Structure prediction request, 207 residues.
Amino acid sequence: VYDKRTYAFEESRTTSADGATVWNLGFRKTSRSPFLALRGLFGGTRSTIEISVPDGVPYSIEGVVQGGSLQAEIGGTLCREVDVDLQRGAVVMSVRRPLAEPMRRFAIASNQGANVVSSLGNASPREVSVDCSMGACVLDLTGEWRNDSDIALGVSLGAGVLTVDEDVDSSGLEDVKGFRPALAGSEDSEIPRPKLRFRIDGKWEMQ
Prediction:
């Protein structure tokens, strides 16, 4: 859904070296009219792309958000990787159900804006990288972790809020405000706890 007087919708499909289909989607601004720009701000048509991926189909989310937002609910799907470059705007992602298999990598590089990620533990990414230059970041790592993970978090101008389940084995959070060690007695469990290895840069606090 978009205003055809202001934007052109562009799409293309290519095949990568490993045989995967790469689907490129985006909007290109076609009008410099200040009237149409104001119309978009005050009740005009908001440019939106909606994508649904069937269960069992492997996919990755990679893209650049130059102005606007990316909103995604990926629970229960076969999402292999997320790699988003946020120039300005917002990224809102949630994982309400465990993925079909653990995600390889989850990465957000944010220049200016807000990032809200919910229940990322249900994706069990083996590698997490979230770097926010300016803005706010709310990162919820709760959920059904199935494997260890290396997690690098950074904020420059702004603050980060972090939520981690108490029954996972976390290291590298000792200096984060509000941190509480894992629950006592969990070491005796027959099932080993997932190990989350953190590298923290900037101002973060536990929720």
Summary: Residues 35-43 have pLDDT under 50 and may be disordered. The helical segments are 34-41.
